[in-house]
Amino acid sequence: MAVAVALHAALGALLYHGHQAASLARSTSVPIMVSFITPEPVVPPKPQPPQPVVEPKPAPKQAVKPKPKPAEKPVIASKSPEPAPFAAPEPEPEPEPVAEQAPPPAPPAAPAPAVADAPVQTAPPRFNADYLQNPKPPYPNLSRRLQEEGTVVLRVYVSPNGLPEQVEVSKSSGYARLDESALNTVRKYWKFVPARRGDTPVGGWVLVPIAFTLEG
Hints:
Elements: H1 2-27, E1 122-123, H2 141-145, E2 150-158, E3 164-171, H3 176-189, E4 195-197, E5 200-202, E6 204-212
Antiparallel strand pairs: 1-4, 2-3, 2-6, 4-5
């Protein structure tokens, strides 16, 4: 019901405004007068004669003024500095006297080293003294027949009394019979001069060569 009322109201408003617009159009329709204006002919402008070109005058050259030379300054001779007056050095203060210290006592003298005894020379035993009268070993008969010859060297230890305590062959003659004859003779019959250390007789070793040679 309300919708229908609204529609009727809207239609009524439209009809009212349309009626007013039609009446306004009828009241404003007035004839308009229009007049056409013919345009004036266009006159072209007269060409102006060309103006002469005026060349610019060169600017006058300005004379270059010489630069003024700097004035030479007078050379002033430098004065050598006057030597400073010599000042005598102040005397150094004398050192205070130092009390002299007594020198330390000298260390006791070292005892003199004992004088070493001079080495006593030892003389070796001797067997060739004339007074000894040592006999020659006998030539074995078989060695004579076989003509055996040679020299045997005996090494003998002589006691302080001059007696042969040890006798041994140091170098053989090459024949045992000759060596044995020399050993037996020296052991039993020979005497020696004992070795001496200073004036004291001592025991010592000596080499005794014995030659066995057949006479022509």
